Amino acid sequence: YGLRYGTQRQVREFFEAFVYPLGTIVGTAIILGLQFFFGSQQAFLWLQVVLVALTLGMIAFSLRLKRAYTKISRDNLLESDQRISKLHAIEILSQNGHHDHLSVLIKSLENPAENIEVKVKILEIFHKMNDPKTISVILGFLQAQDEELVYAAVKALGGFKNLDQKGEKVFDQGFTIYRVIDELKKLFTASSSERVRAEIIRTLVALNYDGIVAFLVEAMKGASTGLLVACIEVCAMFDDPMLADYLLPFLKSESPIVRAHTVISLWRFSNYKEKLRVVLEELFNSGVREDLLAYSTVIGDLGTKTDRQRLLARFDVKDQLKASLLAFIL
Predict the structure, then answer these.
(1) Which residues, including other chains, have CB under 8 Å from residue 136's CB and lie 6 or more apart?
(2) pLDDT digits over 220-230, tens only?
């Protein structure tokens, strides 16, 4: 992985074709040589000596190779013009044991000329590394011009585990969590991207934001279909009967997918199942494609095998919509 992309396959094939068989030959030659020079009685003792010497030699070689391995990966990330090579280098540098690897990743991320896909990959890696030092860098990309970078930054914050590698609580630091949540709330207000706003909702939930309920209720007022669906999906995480007071009005939404997700969120509350079944029957009996796809979303989540067979039985085998429904419910 430390080699430049394009030479990796050649090196791998070389090892498989020549080095592995050569190792078998050399190993056999060493054993025969020891028997020839020291005789059968002493050969076993000297074989142990050779094995220990080889082990120590490999350890010394590995320690020296470590710096070279880091340097090759660093050069691939900062100097290579091949996207795949850069992505491999990011994976390698995110692993433990590399010296000064974080500064290299940040340098590449902040390079204006760097490929967007590479920057997105680095942001994804940051939350896996779980290093508190990267939080301020990620926050800086909430204001990026490219929507993909903003989305990746929001998602990276949501993917952070609360414990870093030293066992310290990352988001138990008062100012840290306040700054992160404040920046996300500002972005939610300023962004026009439905996708980004929906991810902000999920991230706030992942960060255990205390004011998430009030934030959700406010966000659902006049929200677009995509954002409303994201909010309703988050609401499904709350096992609170009072949730119905806020979601029941959406059963009359013009959007079938909004109605479908509302049914899923409220299905656990037995008091409303009769009303929810009426909505499901309306979706099922509709001849509109969007209604049937919305119905299949519910059946895929909550339905039984009988429900699925009932849905698919409505269509001919060659019907293209049936193939779409299969993708939803199977």
Answers:
(1) none
(2) 988 888 889 98
